[in-house]
Design brief:
Elements lengths: L26 H23 L1 H10 L6 H6 L2 H20 L6 H39 L1
Helix pairs in contact: 1-4, 1-5, 4-5
């Protein structure tokens, strides 16, 4: 019996080996797509339910709400901010044959960054009255 050469990889039957499709997303790419989609969904859900915050802020004593807060409690604002990220994910998935893998990965990364920025803007908008109320308490 012949000893295997330690410097050569073992021979694998081509019928049992998984063949990667060139240009297909890897698992890490799909994780990025899912995380970005969940971030877009979270922004949309917060924006749809943010109307409750406006009455809560008024009950806490905030007479006039800052501009960013007034925008953040509108249902269309979060949807408007989340739309570019959602569109980039849709383009990366729909037109996978037109764009190279590098371009599609770039779309996913930019969509993720836009979703994070949009989420931060909505969150800061919702927290601004709380910060101003806390500032008034501290100065008293």
């Amino acid at each position: 019996m012949q000893q295997p050469n330690p410097y050569r990889p073992p021979q694998v039957d081509q019928g049992t080996q998984a063949v990667a499709v060139p240009g297909a997303f890897t698992v890490l790419d799909w994780i990025g797509v899912v995380v970005t989609a969940l971030a877009v969904l979270a922004i949309c859900l917060v924006s749809i339910n943010a109307r409750v915050f406006e009455s809560m802020f008024r009950d806490m004593g905030a007479e006039s709400l800052p501009l960013l807060t007034r925008l953040a409690v509108r249902p269309w604002f979060g949807l408007l901010l989340a739309t570019p990220a959602a569109a980039m994910i849709a383009v990366a998935l729909k037109y996978h044959r037109r764009f190279s893998l590098a371009h599609r990965r770039a779309l996913v990364v930019v969509a993720f960054a836009l979703a994070l920025i949009a989420g931060a803007v909505v969150l800061v908008g919702l927290y601004q009255p709380i910060f101003s109320i806390a500032g008034n308490i501290r100065s008293s």
